[in-house]
Design goal:
Elements (H helix, E strand, L loop, with lengths): L7 E7 L3 E7 L4 E7 L8 H6 L5 H14 L8 E6 L12 H16 L5 E4 L5 E6 L5 E4 L7
Parallel strand pairs: 4-5
Antiparallel strand pairs: 1-6, 2-3, 2-4, 6-7
């Protein structure tokens, strides 16, 4: 999370994980969370040390942090990217879908509206958020950033 206008926040190779971006255009504050798991209950010890790994703890944590820095819930522009189902993840079926549902539930509990999403499928994605403008770029391995 930052208000540094020179910063571009990013996450690469977002597969079944989900990248959540928060942006407040009035205070030019951006935050990005690259979460890996839906529920912190799967490993409470790890979640206590690394809450950002989980949708149910990471999203409220980022929301609280951006609001403490001056962002307002009504102005937040929120996007999500990822939630893919990758063939090389046979040990954890439907991880992308479970992450997606947990993210939507966490945002709903906070009363935060989702501006946009690019989720599902079987493709890795990269996402960038330009803090100065709120511009968001998305790229896949077979497609340049747009």
């Amino acid at each position: 999370m930052t208000q540094d206008a020179e910063t571009i926040l990013g996450a690469d190779s977002v597969g079944s994980c989900i990248a959540v971006t928060f942006y407040d255009p009035v205070v030019q504050l951006g935050g990005l969370l690259h979460l890996q798991y839906p529920q912190s209950t799967s490993d409470r010890a790890r979640a206590g040390n690394q809450p950002a790994l989980y949708a149910d703890t990471g999203i409220p944590h980022l929301f609280e942090a951006v609001c403490k820095q001056g962002a307002e819930k009504e102005r937040l522009l929120v996007t999500i990217t990822g939630g893919a189902e990758l063939a090389n993840d046979p040990g954890a079926p439907n991880t992308g879908k479970r992450n997606y549902l947990a993210v939507r539930k966490s945002l709903w509990k906070l009363g935060v509206m989702l501006q946009g999403e690019n989720v599902g499928g079987a493709v890795l994605r990269s996402v960038r958020l330009e803090v100065a403008t709120g511009k968001l770029w998305l790229a896949t391995p077979d497609q340049a950033e747009q």
